[in-house]
Design brief:
The protein has 452 residues and is an alpha+beta fold. Among the domains are: 91-139, no CATH class; 160-339, Nucleotidyltransferase, domain 5; 341-402, OB fold (Dihydrolipoamide Acetyltransferase, E2P) (Beta Barrel), CATH 2.40.50. It has 14 helices and 13 strands. A six-stranded antiparallel β-sheet has the order 8-11-12-13-10-9. A five-stranded mixed β-sheet has the order 5-4-3-6-7, sandwiched between helices.
Length: 452
């Protein structure tokens, strides 16, 4: 596989990549491109502002071609002047739209246009495009979402024929130990074989937990073609989308109560709870530490579940996995894989050598005050680092107490300059004239008048 570059996508590019992922996931399942595009555009998609929107087939085809020709960079929107409201509609109509949306959030665009005609905001013969009004409302951030109906949801069943074409992941909350502490186990399954790929345990379902499970799965089993996730906070974050896009994995976010997407992983969770998780609640012999629980659940996943007969397969997941003819696809090397889980941010350094990140101030080495620098974020452990004097330096939160008692660094004093010859004053010249030396510069006495 070709070596990928580390890129950071904009929210618009991430949305386009999500739509392309939905198309290519259907193509992997044996569907034609035109049919896949027609099905994807029928489903509303949630943009960066949390609003539902639709895209046209023409736009989706254009993004597919741009992705095939230029990769992820081809999905970035073209730079053009930003229009805040509208350069076509009159100001009084824009003010009317804001006022009406504050009173009636559910009013449709045609309804608003009819009200504007009746109230004299628009003339009787003045024609206004609904698309233009809709775009103006989008630019002003007015609510335009609608309640989704059951007919709008694509709930047909799917099933991939070979391993690592589609992976499923979801978290299961449970309690462990005598203190009944809350924990979450995130399992990753293969869609075709139901083989348990990995399990990670944490105190909450977040982005770092999922990315750690994804990294371990790829290290052990290779890259998957697509990933099916729900809309949990750790699955819809920009960090998750950035990493999955870098790895060229198609990301699919399912809707609520989707039987074919969530049903498989939910059925697995029922099995895990009945066989393993329910015996951890209140058990004094169980260590509630996430690392200890992860070791315990990994043993059950690899040594018990994968060797147990699966009803829908008619055989064990391990047998189905080993008999699959598809070759596993591993990354180029470990360093390349680790680099895909590192993102960069730009921050300005304060005069006291601090940068803010998530309401925490991190201390930098001296010499960066007032500069804008690139900070590397390692998503697997959440650490920040910078390149300082040719090496990566990990940043830590500022310790104000230690700084209060530590000695202040002082600038090194310049080295002493070589001694200079003292200037010859007039007094020195008069002294030398009055008191001539007894010998010449060669150390000889001067000859007298009677000397031969």
């Amino acid at each position: 596989m070709a070596k990928a570059t580390r890129v950071q996508l904009s929210p618009q590019a991430l949305l386009r990549y999500q739509l392309i992922s939905a198309v290519q996931a259907r193509v992997l399942a044996g569907m034609g491109v035109s049919q896949a595009v027609s099905e994807v555009v029928k489903q509303p998609v949630c943009d960066a502002r949390g609003q539902l929107r639709r895209v046209s087939e023409r736009s989706l085809y254009r993004w597919l071609v741009a992705y095939q020709q230029e990769g992820l960079q081809g999905l970035e929107p073209e730079s053009r002047p930003h229009v805040v409201e509208s350069a076509v509609l009159p100001v009084k109509l824009l003010d009317f739209l804001r006022t009406e949306k504050e009173v009636d959030r559910e009013a449709s665009i045609p309804e608003l246009i009819r009200r504007a005609h009746l109230l004299g905001i628009l003339g009787e013969d003045e024609q206004t495009s609904r698309t233009t009004v809709w775009r103006a409302c989008c630019r002003m951030g007015l609510p335009l979402g609608r309640v989704r109906k059951a007919a709008d949801r694509d709930m047909r069943r799917f099933g991939y024929p070979h391993r690592m074409l589609m992976a499923l992941a979801d978290g299961k909350h449970f309690r462990a130990g005598v203190g009944r502490l809350r924990r979450v186990a995130l399992h990753i399954l293969d869609d075709a074989t139901r083989y348990g790929l990995a399990v990670v345990v944490g105190t909450a379902e977040n982005t770092q937990l999922f990315l750690r499970g994804l990294h371990g799965t790829i290290c052990r089993w290779g890259l998957m073609k697509a990933f099916f996730l729900d809309n949990g906070s750790g699955f819809i974050s920009d960090d998750t989308r950035q990493v999955v896009a870098r790895l060229n994995i198609k990301l699919i976010h399912g809707t609520a109560n989707y039987p074919e997407g969530h049903g498989k992983i939910e059925r697995f969770h029922w099995t895990a709870f009945q066989h393993e998780l329910r015996g951890l609640d209140g058990n004094p012999e169980v260590d509630p530490d996430p690392a200890a629980l992860e070791l315990r659940l990994s043993h059950w996943l690899y040594q018990v579940y994968n060797h147990t007969l699966h009803e829908s397969l008619g055989r064990t997941p391990l047998e189905r996995w080993n008999d699959d003819p598809r070759e596993l696809e591993f990354p180029l090397d470990r360093q390349w894989l680790d680099d895909q889980f590192v993102l960069t941010i730009e921050r300005r350094v304060s005069p006291d050598n601090l940068i803010p990140y998530k309401e925490v101030d991190y201390e930098l080495p001296r010499g960066y005050a007032g500069q804008r620098i690139q900070i590397s974020r390692r998503l697997l452990d959440g650490t920040l680092s910078i390149m300082h004097e040719g090496r990566a330096v990990v940043l830590h939160p500022v310790d104000t107490t230690a700084n209060a008692y530590s000695r202040r660094a002082r600038k090194a004093s310049p080295p002493p300059s070589p001694p200079q010859r003292a200037p010859k004053t007039a007094a020195a010249m008069a002294f030398e004239s009055a008191y001539q030396p007894l010998v010449d510069h060669e150390g000889n006495y001067p000859k007298g008048e009677n000397d031969d």
